[in-house]
Amino acid sequence: MPDIAFFMNLFSVILQYGLIFFIYYFIYLLLKLIYHDLHPALEKKQPESTTANLFVLDSNSSLRQNKFAIDAELSIGRGKENDIVIDDTYISHHHAIINRINNLYVIEDLNSVNHTYLNGKLLAKKTYLQSGDIIKIGLVTFKFER
Q: What pLDDT digit, counting tens, does each position of 78-113 carry?
């Protein structure tokens, strides 16, 4: 019959292996949490991107279209290299830009002389656009829709 020392040694070995198991399990859970925190797209499927549009509400210039689709980026200005070219002396060559970031749209004034207005207020910094926002650049007024 085994004596008490045998059972104490057995109990000690079981505790040691149990502690090692729980340490490895804790490390596993921690790495799993970090991985899912760094890769949120794996947790949830991102909704399919819906394109947004700018509709021309009021214009004293010769814009050829009344609707402009916004993909990843849309530049507005008087320069021919812009996506929306507005021949208006109140508009800078590179006036404003709209970017899509994580399926949200951000408008930024590119230090234009006559500024960009969002919902009647001076656009001072990058701002997220909401559906129905009114953007005024020079004599042209746009409405942002998603």
A: 999 999 998 888 889 999 999 998 889 999 999 998
**The CATH number of the domain covering residues in 53-145:** 2.60.200.20
3-state SS string for the chain: CCCHHHHHHHHHHHHHHHHHHHHHHHHHHHHHHHHHHHCHHHHCCCCCCCCEEEEEEECCCCCCCCEEEECCEEEEECCCCCCEECCCCCCCCCCEEEEEECCEEEEEECCCCCCEEECCEECCCCEECCCCCEEEECCEEEEEEC
The overall pTM is greater than 0.70: no
* Segment 57-78, tens digit of pLDDT: 887 766 778 899 988 899 999 9
